[in-house]
User: Fold this.
Amino acid sequence: MPATQTAKTPSLEPAAMLAANLSDVQERSAATFARAYDVLAKTSQAIWESEPELFKLESEQLLKSLAPPKAGDNPAAGLSAYFAELHDGSERMIARMRHINDLAWGCGWQIATIYADGLQDMWKHAQAKIPTQPAAEAARGKTA
Assistant:
């Protein structure tokens, strides 16, 4: 390339690739981990708060399954009511489990977003710190 043209390609010098300010990198990393831990803590709390309700529903379902159907004038109607109660209880339990699954799913996506944001932030800071080729050559004293 002629000396009159200036290239804007990043330098691949090892010294230029390293962060100029290690404490800045550590601060950004700590902030990323703090965000991730905050998401995990909030999700864990929400799941733990949901567990007693799920345990209560499971206990009620167990008691209903152990109790014999109510005897009445019409045994078919009694059995139908018994199975309808079991079905309703199962639906409530499934809804609670879906809620917990949604919490865990949302947590995973939030963590993935934090990770992607951290990579994007790292890339922006790296691009700002890497000198272009003429600047790297000037720093080494090789300008023509």
About this structure: The chain has a mean pLDDT of 77. The helical segments are 14-17, 22-66, 75-129, 133-140. DSSP finds four helices and no strands in the chain. The two ends are 12 Å apart (CA to CA).
